[in-house]
Amino acid sequence: xxxxxRQRLLERAHALPQAHASDFFGDRRPPSxxxxxLLKRIDDTTLRTKLxxxxxxxxxxxxxxxxxxxxxxxxxxxxxxxGKVTSAKKMxxxxxxxxxxxxxxxxxxxxxLIGRIREVEADVAHDLSAEADERVAHLKRALVDLDGDELExxxxxLGAALERKRALVSQIRYETFRRIESxxxxxxxxxxxxxRR
Length: 197
Hints:
By secondary structure, this protein is mainly α. It contains five helices and three strands, in the order αβαββααα. It is elongated.
């Protein structure tokens, strides 16, 4: 397909009505790493097929049979929608080439993303650890002047604060990914899905 034709298809994709969280059926939810403006409702099955085949869109939800649910796609302006494979053209020896996955990042893109993750993670770790350390230090100082029930309560609070500090690893990771997901200046954030879980 000519570049101009692909560009026209992309323009048609952008013109589709935006999908909202309420359009997703049952337990389905919009992808957490997706720009909401790139989630579209589409009723034209022919256009949907073209968008998917050209790597412009990934199907997120499709009605089956008589289901009255919205057909939803996610638009990839760089023509790198995941799940698209190249057509199996015969090679000279008669064997079909290996299908190539679309939507995979380059090494440079992954290095950029991982570098940003490390930067943000360091900032988050500093912020959260400083808060936890300050709370623990405050409670330790308070123990000196307390007795009886107050002392027992302070010990319980100190134990809880130390437990929260130990749980920071998962909190730091969660907050790091949350910040990167919302960073519109980092297009590589779309590849966070490859690093999760």
